Amino acid sequence: MITIVYAHRNRDTKRIEVSFKSLQQQKLQNFEVIFVDYGSERHLVKDLETLSGQFDFVKFFHLPVSQLLWNKSKGLNYGIKKASGDYIFIADIDLVFHPETTKLLEQIKSPAKFQLFKLGYLGKGESKTLSEGYKFEVLKAKSFGGVNGMILTSRESLFKIDGLDEFFHFYGAEDEDLFARLENIGLKREHCEKSYFIHQWHQSFSGSEDKLLTGNPRVKNIKRINQRHFLQNREKGVVKPLRQIGMGEIINPVLSRKLKRPDLIVKTPNVLAHVEHLLREELPSLQNKVIRIEFFEAVYYSSLKHRIKKLLGKQTQPYISMKEVNDMVLKEILFNYRDHNYSFRINEDLKNIVFCIQV
Fold it and tell me: What is the pTM of this model?
């Protein structure tokens, strides 16, 4: 049996239904689906449970980790550990499968190789037609790509390398890193050129959210940070991620509830020196504590007086934007606290950020 693994957070259920229905039409039903929801909002989880229940090949797992940053690698690793199949196909939530896809996977699977695939990208208009009934053969992709995260490999090979590297947060390079580390244990990379996969259109997730503060946590320059991590792993010939203990380990919900009862509450304005000192000196010096840090935009920061002094170069105490505060906190999480019990939240007014952590 082949296990198809999805990792998901807060996407619309319609595109998921389209993907599942394309699997329902497979001529060879030699697979199971492990669908891992990594911390979606509560109302969406109920919809996902209902949707998954309509397909007998889907096993649905909701991980209550909405307080954590999006980590596709950890979600996929959790799914790989739940898989029953000897071979794993890592899927994208936007995929539409050709009716003979699983037959193809059965034919090309090999313990000595891993397979990558060509992916066709639909335009916005044609993607809308997928919910109305369609024939795969008449779908016209606007473009094709060769590096896209889809891979078929043995479950055993993934365990040999501790799965995906869970350093990678948000998006970018986790797939390239996985491919390189599989090659490091001797597997041969092959590309399947059959046009058996179509990607539903969606708005790009990169772009403005990296540069502007929104309610959805993002960090500036994350794609380059992730790319640097991948390149360093490749240069060193890394097999198992260097700072990763196991794979797909999830914070216990009982433990995460401790964050609601902090031992210490710290309130910090968006003053550069205050934020830097708190994150890099005060926080590392604390032990066996639950700390709630509330970063807030000082009233003075948006005042006319501050803007004039900054324009004239007379500012003595540098302030930073809440977006800059956001980026500093997120980078501390990525580099130093990603395996800790923590929560991160941006308030709706975008003037307050709450970071709780157990150290």
Answer: 0.93
**Ordered strands of the 151-154 beta sheet:** 58-63, 31-38, 2-8, 87-90, 151-154, 113-117, 188-192
Say how far apart CA 44 and CA 58 lie, in whole Å: 17
DSSP letter string, 202-262: ---SSTHHHHS--SS---TTHHHHHHHHHHHHHHHT-SS-TT--SSS----HHHHGGGGS-
Task: List, as one string, the DSSP characters of 128-169.
Answer: HGGGG---GGG---SEEES-SS-EEEEHHHHHHTTSS-TT--
Q: How far apart are the first and last CA of the chain?
A: 42
- Rg of the chain over all Cα atoms, to the nearest angstrom: 22
User: Which tokens in the block code for residue 203?
Assistant: 């708005």
pLDDT tens track for 46-98 = 999 999 999 999 999 999 999 999 999 999 999 999 999 999 999 999 999 99
345 Cβ contact list (under 8 Å, min separation 6): 67, 353, 354, 355
